[in-house]
């Protein structure tokens, strides 16, 4: 099939192209099962070598090729042409400074990520046998969903609150905080809840639900944010999430 | 401002689902209601302070422009209330998130379902009034002119907020966060988050009751009709002035308690604080780029809320005597010579 790509471009180094503009590319012999990322490669390799975009693993694991494709944030390596049709529009994710074409500066996004202390905190002595700190399957289940985040920024840059105000920590940072706040082995939940109780923390979330469908890992993001809000309200993550029955294998 | 323009254009461009549009409608509806609330608290207070002005304000309500506005207002209130309930449920029960889209459809459907009978009844009042050969309607120019003081007042509140913010910036340029090693959490935002949800729950029955009485059962056209029953009381509007209508309601004692005054005090306090904090959310969302403007918008909201609370409370605690009703009667006669 033939596919027309409409790509939002910008090159700050070339006068005349230093303002965002749209450019069309026509591709033929496209398989419906081709991914958008492969098509971007074909455009870059066959038609215009100056087209700039990020990608690393190309298999939905590294999270570097988040783009707004046909109006919705997704990973270019995870979306197939047959799900989009013969006209495909690609533009950079919104809310972060565009560096070139589809590449945005991720630093503000990672600054918010670092803000929530995205690392394990536990200063108590290790268990006597010197091995890992144990946790029940039920306790592990509480934050299982939020361990899946790959920091692609699809959610944060789909959020109207983040578009309006780049100092809002955004859904991704809250998801990452959730992963530690609800981890029974971690001891810094109170600090993270304090950080997220700031005006630019969870309260800028207006329960709009743009983040949840944008997540390529299908994390229940708005739910996770809601749980963090409730944990702040109650002053503790205890008892916020209903423990599901976990099947023990083996 | 760029932040607001960007959010509007990109919200239109982003293919967000129903959740996004629910948020857009919730904001627009909320802004509409706060705007009317501002006019309404101030002009209702005139029934106590300036009976002649109150007669004119009610005459302004009884014009085509405000009739259309009344229908829009009722739609805004009902949508904002139902969608607010949806948000409250999802915020306190996040695990129900999978039902959010269906809930958004239910909110839309429920709004339409409630609006059909409400609009039919309201339209009955409209037909009655506009078909009456003796009806008198103020010219549009006069109606618009009567709203100029409100526009000026809003502009003054905006400018005063920003000026005060500038002053604050000069006196305390470092801000309260300076020297703080790391955030300690904002107790205020936490309180506001709860307040918005709890007050929302309390406002819904109060406002629905108020709308039912003033827009559906009675209708704004009947409150200046001589001999008409006064809703919520067993009294008759003897003079046919809107001032007597208010007096009859506020002076009604049941078991020694002025129930409609209490009702209106609760309504005033909850809607003004809920409304202006909502306005603060909206205004600060789009002014985060400038601390001068952001702080200014906060002050504007505080000024607005305080003005309405003070004026509204003074009116609700005031008395309307026979002289005021007589003044209103003469004003009504002079209004349409």
Structural notes for this entry:
- The complex is a heterodimer of chains A (250) and B (337).
- Chain A contains eight helices and seven strands.
- Chain A has helices at 36-47, 107-115, 137-142, 160-164, 170-181, 189-196, 211-214, 221-234, and strands at residues 3-9, 21-27, 66-69, 72-75, 87-91, 98-100, 103-104.
- In chain A, the strands form two sheets. A five-stranded mixed beta sheet of chain A has the order 2-1-5-3-4, with helices on one face.
- With 250 residues, chain A is of the alpha+beta class.
- Chain A folds into two domains: 3-104, Beta-grasp domain (Ubiquitin-like (UB roll)), CATH 3.10.20; 107-234, Alpha-helical ferredoxin (Fumarate Reductase Iron-sulfur Protein, Chain B, domain 2), CATH 1.10.1060.10.
- With 337 residues, chain B is mainly α.
- Chain B has one domain.
- Chain B has helices at 2-13, 18-49, 51-61, 64-92, 100-131, 140-171, 187-217, 242-251, 259-285, 291-317, 322-335.
- In chain B, helix 2 crosses helix 10, helix 4 (64-92) crosses helix 7 (187-217) and helix 5 packs parallel to helix 7 (187-217).
- The longest helix of chain B has 32 residues, at 18-49.
- Chain B is globular, with a radius of gyration of 22 Å.
- The chains are: A alpha+beta (250), B mainly alpha (337).
- Chain A binds chain B through residues 68, 70-72, 94, 158, 160-161, 163-167, 191, 193-195, 197-199, 201, 203-204, 206-210, 212-213, 220, 222-227, 229-230, 232-233, 241-242, and chain B through 3-4, 6-7, 10-11, 13-17, 19-20, 22-23, 87, 90-92, 94-95, 97, 100-101, 182-187, 189-190, 192-194, 281, 285-286, 288.
């Amino acid at each position: 099939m033939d596919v027309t790509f409409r790509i939002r471009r910008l090159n700050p180094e070339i006068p005349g192209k230093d303002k965002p503009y749209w450019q069309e590319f026509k591709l033929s012999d496209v398989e419906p099962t081709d991914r958008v990322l492969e098509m971007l490669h074909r455009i870059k390799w066959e038609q215009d070598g100056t087209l700039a975009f990020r990608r690393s693993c190309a298999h939905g694991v590294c999270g570097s090729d988040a783009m707004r494709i046909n109006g919705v944030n997704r990973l270019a390596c995870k979306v197939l042409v047959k799900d989009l049709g013969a006209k495909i529009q690609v533009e950079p994710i919104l809310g972060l400074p565009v560096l070139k074409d589809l590449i945005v500066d991720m630093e503000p996004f990672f600054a918010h990520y670092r803000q929530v202390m995205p690392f394990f905190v536990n200063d108590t002595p290790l268990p006597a046998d010197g091995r890992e700190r144990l946790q029940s399957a039920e306790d592990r289940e509480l934050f299982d969903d939020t361990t899946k985040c790959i920091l692609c920024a699809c959610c944060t840059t789909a959020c109207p609150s983040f578009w309006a105000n780049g100092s809002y920590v955004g859904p991704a940072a809250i998801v990452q905080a959730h992963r530690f706040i609800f981890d029974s082995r971690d001891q810094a939940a109170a600090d993270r809840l304090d950080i997220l109780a700031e005006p630019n923390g969870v309260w800028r979330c207006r329960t709009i639900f743009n983040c949840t469908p944008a997540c390529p890992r299908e994390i229940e993001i708005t739910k996770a944010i809601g749980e963090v809000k409730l944990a702040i309200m109650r002053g503790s993550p205890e008892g916020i999430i209903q423990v599901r029955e976990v099947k023990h294998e083996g | 401002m760029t932040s607001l323009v960007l959010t509007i254009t990109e919200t239109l461009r982003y293919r967000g689902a129903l959740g996004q549009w629910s948020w857009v409608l919730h904001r627009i509806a909320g802004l509409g209601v706060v705007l009317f609330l501002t006019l309404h608290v101030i002009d209702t207070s005139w029934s106590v302070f300036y009976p002649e002005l109150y007669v004119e304000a009610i005459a302004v309500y009884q014009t085509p422009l405000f009739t259309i506005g009344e229908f829009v207002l009722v739609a805004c209130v009902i949508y904002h209330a139902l969608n607010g309930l949806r948000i409250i449920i999802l915020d306190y029960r996040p695990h129900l998130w999978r039902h959010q889209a269906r809930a958004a459809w239910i909110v839309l459907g429920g709004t339409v379902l409630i609006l059909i009978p409400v609009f039919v009844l309201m339209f009955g009042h409209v037909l009655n009034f506009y078909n009456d050969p003796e009806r008198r309607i103020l010219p549009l120019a006069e109606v618009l002119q009567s709203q100029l003081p409100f526009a000026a007042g809003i502009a003054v509140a905006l400018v005063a907020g920003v000026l005060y913010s500038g002053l604050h910036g000069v006196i305390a340029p470092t801000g309260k966060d300076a020297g703080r090693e790391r955030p300690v959490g904002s107790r205020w935002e936490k309180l506001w988050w709860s307040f918005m949800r709890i007050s929302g729950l309390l406002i819904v029955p109060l406002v629905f009751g108020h709308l039912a009485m003033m827009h559906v059962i009675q209708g704004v056209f009947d409150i200046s009709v001589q001999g008409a029953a006064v809703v919520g009381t067993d009294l008759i509007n003897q003079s046919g002035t809107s001032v007597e209508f208010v007096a009859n309601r506020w002076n009604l004692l049941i078991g020694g308690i002025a129930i409609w005054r209490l009702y209106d005090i609760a309504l005033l306090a909850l809607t003004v604080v809920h409304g202006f904090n909502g306005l603060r959310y909206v205004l600060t969302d789009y002014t985060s780029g400038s601390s001068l403007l952001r702080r200014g918008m906060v002050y504007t909201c505080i000024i607005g809320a305080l003005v309405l609370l003070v004026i509204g409370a003074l009116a609700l605690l005031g008395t309307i005597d026979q002289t005021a009703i007589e003044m209103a009667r003469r004003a009504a006669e002079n209004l349409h010579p």
